[in-house]
Amino acid sequence: MEAIEPLWTFAADWKVRLVVLITIANMVLAVRLYTAMAKARVRVVKAGKATTETYRATQNEPEEAAVFNRAVMNQFESPTIFYALIAISLALGVSSWLTVILAALYVAIRWRHGYEMIGEHVVLRRRKLFVRSVQVLMALMVEVTLSALLWA
């Protein structure tokens, strides 16, 4: 136990700051995708491919705008688990340097996933990124759970 204790105690203030900044980076992704979605919707309306009524209930949205809508919705699926895990780890004071590393890896993959969705949109590559992000999220869940059991 003593051999792994530095994961929780070394530079604890920096560890918390980094976890917060990493979490904000994921929020920035959501805002970035919202902005891209809004611009895409304006483009399709100006091009006459949709009307403002299309967005009353977001029905029959042209694909070039719908992909942005899906990218935004995707930020409120597995990332909600990420936010909960980070909040739990900070509230209990059990975040470790492994938490920081896993959180950074998760957010980096989510950024790649988000840009794959609104960029080239190669479905198999996007799926691999999604699967990797869920694997990292599961590892983070295990790490936070074990930290809570061992250090809380």
Topology overview:
Blueprint: H1 6-9, H2 12-46, H3 63-74, H4 78-92, H5 97-118, H6 123-151
Helix pairs in contact: 2-3, 2-4, 2-5, 4-6, 5-6
Which superfamily, in CATH terms, is the homologous superfamily?
Membrane associated eicosanoid/glutathione metabolism-like domain
Query: How far apart, in Å, are the first and last alpha carbons?
Result: 14 Å
Apparent shape:
elongated
What's the CATH architecture name?
Up-down Bundle
Order of helices and strands: HHHHHH
Percent of residues in helices: over 70%
Structural class: mainly alpha
Unreliable stretches, pLDDT < 50, 5 or more residues? none
SS field, number of helical segments: 6
CATH fold node name: Four Helix Bundle (Hemerythrin (Met), subunit A)
- Radius of gyration computed on alpha carbons: 19 Å
What is the average per-residue confidence, as pLDDT, rounded to a whole number?
91
Percent of sequence in beta strands: under 5%
Number of strands: 0
Describe the structure.
With 152 residues, this protein is an all-alpha fold. The chain has a single domain, classed as Up-down Bundle (Four Helix Bundle (Hemerythrin (Met), subunit A)), CATH 1.20.120. The chain is 77% helix and 0% strand. It is elongated.
